Amino acid sequence: MSTLTTPVTTSPEARPVPPEGSAWSRWANAHRKWLFAAPAMTFVAVLIVIPVVWTGYLSLTDAEGSVRAESEFIGFQNYLDVLRDTDRFWPAVWRTVAFTGVVLLVEVVLGMAIALLLWRPFRGERWVRVAILLPLVATPVAVGMMWRLIFDPNIGMANQMLGWFGIGPQPWLAGQHSALPTTMFIDIWQWTPMVVLILLAGLTSLSDEPQEAALIDGASTWQRFRHVTLPLLMPTVIVAILLRGIDALKTFDILYATKGRGGGSFHEVETLNVYAYGLSFDYNDYGVSSTVLIIFFLIIIGVMWALTYRKKGLER
Amino acid sequence: MRPSRPYRVFRGVALAVVVVGLIAPLLWMIAASFKTNVDIYDTAKTFSFSPTVDNYANVLQRANYVQYIGNSLWVAFAATVLSLVLGVPAAYSMSRFNMRRSALVVLMARVIPGVSLLVPWYYVFSNLRMVGGFTVLILSHMFVSLPLIVYIMMGYFDGLPTELEEAALVDGLTHIGAFRRITMPLSVPGIATAGILSFIFSWNNFMFALVLSGADTKTLPVAIFDFVGYASIDWGGLMAAATVVTLPIMVIALFVQKYVVSGLTAGATKG
User: Fold this and answer.
1) Burial class of A91 by CB neighbour count within 10 A (0 to 12, 13 to 18, 19+)
2) Domain holding B97: CATH number?
3) CA A18/CA B220 separation, integer angstroms
4) pLDDT tens sequence for chain A (316 residues)
5) Do the Cβ atoms of B117 and A52 come within 8 Å?
6) Residues near A205 by Cβ (< 8 Å), separated by ≥ 6?
7) Hey, are the CB atoms on A131 and B22 less than 8 Å from each other?
């Protein structure tokens, strides 16, 4: 008696069928990789890559005045001029580096502390999370205006509060030397929550086992943080530094909102981004502004490359 | 591991300080927006003042803010929808076919300083007589939205198992059919995250509108500067304007808090 040992499906629905449809549909499916990616890539190429290449070209010309004016190719003359400019360019570089360095350091340390406080669940957690989200999504220009009132030397809340402790009024944003630190404070207020959220996501994804093992081995709270939590969290810390660093280098909105054009009358808060904006749209000095932008761009790429390199080293 | 009692007390106090530090300035802004300028200049009336809505009447009627709110909404909405249409399929392709170099080109846009694009854009669009129109404003905001959406959606698709798509192919769907009927419905949370974040960033964007918007297409962050004069500042009006700009986006963000947080932390814990 012969029996079928293997079940054979006879229903036509269950069998793989070749894709049907028109020639267009077959072509579209075969080329879906580029069909899907091409519109976005075209947009990026036309609106981003070409302008960047153009900026590179403009930096080699003496274009200024009107966008329609004739310009001449002058080679690397702009670069020589800019790199020798100790009046506006180098102070702007210094301010950019100082601004980014200080806000990154404070935001990461403060962000880490707050993230560790929020790590384990507790009552009222929801309200803390709301408070952390609000500065993050607030419009930076409006935030700048808000702090402008708080830091106003005559009517601001900041000096009023100092008065309660018997401390004299400070110039804050109006002072030639206090303006940049004050803008750093504003940036720290708005963006520390971003670091908190990123680090908290990292902490939540860590497994409990190394912690428990360290606890059994008698490690103190600090030892557990220093030798267990921090090394495991390091890749996330670098992501936070990377994301915040890019934005901190390019800070524009709060500087423009608090000090206006050119970073104030003495260029107190003129970073590279503010300087390049001023050269382009206040002075219409397109050649020099493009040169500053290309140098700025190279600095950003360099910093990013170094950080990514460091992160890869940690993951190995 | 239940924390010890002293630690819990310390944590409570520390977090209270954090919450007050983050919220108080915002409340201060809102309080000032309900004061007359005379009261703002009087430090005795810091906490006790008779509230007035004159500043808001001023902002919404005289300063034309109703129109600017409409402009901001339209630009953010259009830039987000167009970026989703371009970005979601592109992110899918880049994730499934491992197009890391193409992805890098798109993501470079997050790194490039916006000013370096503004000069060429201004040049081209002023020759086309498009500066001051909505089209160029929406395109410029897509420069922020598209890379953001591609970044978030690539991470999302990377984490989406391919088995369901493969099953759909076996059942006779085409590749594009499987993307449309299986992957897209599964991606709704990711698309919501990307869309919400793109809307927030576009609403808050200042620099592009500063250069490219005209009197009729001004967005809210640019319109704030109407209250900053050369000689004096209308503080009450300025604070009301700042509140009108930023309060709606904060309220929206609270309602969709989960999505905002997952978008902001996308890619933070892997790769």
Assistant:
1) middle
2) 1.10.3720.10
3) 54
4) 444 444 444 444 444 445 557 888 888 888 888 889 999 999 988 888 888 898 999 899 998 877 677 788 898 999 999 999 999 999 999 999 999 999 999 999 999 999 999 988 888 888 899 999 999 999 999 999 999 999 999 888 999 899 999 998 999 999 999 999 999 999 999 999 999 999 999 999 888 888 889 988 888 888 999 999 999 999 899 989 988 999 999 999 999 999 988 888 899 999 999 999 999 998 889 899 999 999 999 999 888 888 888 777 776 6
5) yes
6) B269
7) yes
Cα(B130)–Cα(A207) distance, rounded to whole angstroms?
A: 54
Report if residue B126 sits inside a domain.
Answer: yes
Query: pLDDT tens, A178-225?
Result: 999 999 999 999 999 999 999 999 999 888 888 889 988 888 888 999
Could you tell me which chain B residue has the CA closest to the CA of A239? B268
Mind spelling out the 3-state secondary structure of A116-135?
Answer: HHHHCCCCCHHHHHHHHHHH
Q: How far separated are the first and last CA of chain A, in Å rounded? A: 63
Q: Does any domain span residue B158?
A: yes
Contacts of A68 in chain B (CB under 8 A): 127
Class at the top of the CATH hierarchy for domain A87-315: mainly alpha
**SS3 state of residue B114:** coil
Residue B2's pLDDT is what?
Answer: 65
The pTM score is 0.91
Which chain B residue has the Cα nearest residue A50? B120
B254/A130 touch (CB, cutoff 8 Å), yes or no: yes
Sign of CA dihedral A97, A281, A176, A259: negative
**Rounded to an integer, what distance in angstroms lies between the CA atom of residue A206 and that of residue A203?**
5
Domain ranges of chain A: 22-58, 87-315
Q: Nearest-CA neighbor of A179 among A170, A189, A188?
A: A170
Mapped onto helix, strand or coil, the DSSP state of residue A61 is strand
* CA–CA dist A186, A256 (Å, integer): 13
Contact A64, A284 (CB under 8 A): yes
Task: Specify if B48 maps to a domain.
Answer: no
Q: DSSP string covering A48-59, please?
A: IIHHHHHHHHHT
Q: Which of A140, A121, A224 lies closest to B15 in space, CA to CA? A: A121
User: CB-side exposure of A268: number of CA atoms within 13 Å?
Assistant: 20
Range of the domain at B165: 64-264
Closest of B132, B135, B141 to residue B214, by C-alpha:
B132
Other Cβ atoms closer than 10 A to B51: 11
Q: Do B28 and A43 touch (CB under 8 A)?
A: no
The torsion defined by the Cα of B113, B118, B120 and B125, in degrees rounded to 10, comes to: 150
B141 in any annotated domain: yes
Q: How many separate domains does chain B show?
A: 1
